[in-house]
Structures are given as structure tokens and as C-alpha cells.
């Protein structure tokens, strides 16, 4: 697969605002563990190999275990994720797959009960942000660099 256009070069203002959203999300109260799970799971669903690779390496650098990374796509079948992490992963899947049922009432209510509305709103922003980056990565065919 050949890399396509460079949005940063051809659409610098739009790219700048997307980077601004990225910085905003990283300055929020969302835990690094939750961000890593969101970024990796959404990127898996969206088929963004660049983002799966980048965020898996970032998670490893932050101390995430390889076993949990390997099982992120099968999180329902393991007990290695806490109840809060399971809520974050469910939210990520439901928002990423918005064309199905979107964020269901059941998941939303669990999230608000577990985290409160402010944290849930920050989680939603993080999920929206990585889905935007995934669409950039997939549509422009960003290449995974071998490490």
C-alpha cells in the first residue's frame, strides 16, 4: 500500500485544530491507562495499523503489560480488566461503532455511576478524538514504522 496525501502539509489549519483537540484530551483528567485502552481498542476496530502500533508502544512505555495489550480486543473474555476499564472499553466500542446503537443507555448509566458526568464527558472527547485520528490514518494510509 502506498502512502497518500499529507494532511498536515495540505490542510495545515485543520490539522492544527485536530492537534489542539489531541492536546486538550491529553490535558484532561482521563487516566493514562484509560486513554491507552481507548486509543488501542478504537484503532483496532477502525483498522488503523499506524495508531494500533503507536498507541501500543506508548502503553508499553507507560508500563502496560503485554498480556493486557494482547487481550484488548478480547477484553470481554478475560478478567484482566477492572470493572471501570470494562466500562471504558464498552463505551469505546459503542461510540466507535456509532452506526449500530451508539452509546447505549445501559453503558452510559454505568459510566456516569462509576465516573460521574464530567469524567464521562472527557472519555467521550477522547473517543471522538482517536476516531478522528483513525480516519486520518486509514484514509491517508499512514505507514507503520518497524521498530
From TrEMBL:
Keywords: Oxidoreductase, Peroxidase. GO terms for molecular function: peroxiredoxin activity. It holds the Pfam family CMD. InterPro entries: AhpD-like (IPR029032), AhpD_core (IPR004675), CMD-like (IPR003779). NCBIfam families: ahpD_dom. This is Alkylhydroperoxidase AhpD family core domain-containing protein. It comes from Sphingobacterium psychroaquaticum.
Amino acid at each position: 500500500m502506498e502512502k497518500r496525501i499529507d494532511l498536515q502539509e495540505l490542510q495545515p489549519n485543520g490539522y492544527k485544530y485536530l492537534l489542539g483537540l489531541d492536546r486538550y484530551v491529553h490535558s484532561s483528567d482521563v487516566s493514562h491507562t484509560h486513554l491507552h485502552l481507548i486509543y488501542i481498542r478504537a484503532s483496532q476496530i477502525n483498522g488503523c495499523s499506524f495508531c494500533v502500533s503507536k498507541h501500543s508502544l506508548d502503553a508499553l512505555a507507560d508500563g502496560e503489560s503485554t498480556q493486557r495489550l494482547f487481550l484488548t480486543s478480547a477484553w470481554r473474555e478475560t478478567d484482566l480488566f477492572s470493572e471501570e476499564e470494562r466500562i471504558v472499553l464498552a463505551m469505546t466500542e459503542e461510540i466507535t461503532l456509532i452506526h449500530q446503537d451508539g452509546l447505549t443507555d445501559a453503558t452510559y448509566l454505568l459510566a456516569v455511576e462509576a465516573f460521574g458526568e464530567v469524567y464521562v464527558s472527557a472519555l467521550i472527547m477522547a473517543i471522538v478524538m482517536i476516531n478522528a485520528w483513525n480516519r486520518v490514518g486509514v484514509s491517508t494510509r499512514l505507514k507503520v514504522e518497524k521498530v
